[in-house]
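Residues pack. Consider this:
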Amino acid sequence: MDVMQLLSWACIVFTVGMFSTGLTDLKKMRETKSADNIQFLPFLFTCLNNLGWLYYGLLKKDKTIVFVNVIGALLQILYIIAYLHYTTQRRLVTSQTVAAGTVLACGWFYFTTFLPEGDSQLSQLGLTCSVITVSMYLSPLTDLVQIVRSRDVQRLSFPLSVATFFTSTSWVLYGLQLHDQYIWVPNTPGIFTSLIRLYLFWRFAAVNQSSSAYRSM
């Protein structure tokens, strides 16, 4: 197995593992028959991101990108359907889903109608997907500021932080091997944000445990 095959399998395993962390929320929704305290927009934005990268993979004829994002999109659609079933804010969630679908349809129409096939189409799609990916990686920074202030890491998911670190690292290495800046650049922030989250776990875990022990006495 050469380096590219190894990195390809690493991307598949770690990324599917990261997407599968949503199964915990799915299990919680089924057990409680409620979507309370579960955020909907991460499922929706991740689905849009998956579909964008799926299109990029198809244009680039990269089987690794295609396979990973097919699995990711299917899982996010499953989470979205479950959320729609259990939420009490069905009208709001439905309108958000319709709006996202409209944006996706407009984007697809633009890229297929107004851009010539070839490098121009691929580069603009890659840039768009990169911006979405970077924004998704940077979006938790506001939560991290609140965690530092409160010294409480209960709102962070340790498995997701670990999965994000290995997923981002594998895609950065994969993109560097392909000399594809649209793959390695947007995944670089994921390494730093996941390292920050892991540091916060290490820094404040003992504080949270001692506080829990104190409350239980």
Summary: Residues 210-217 have pLDDT under 50 and may be disordered. The first helix runs from residue 3 to 20.
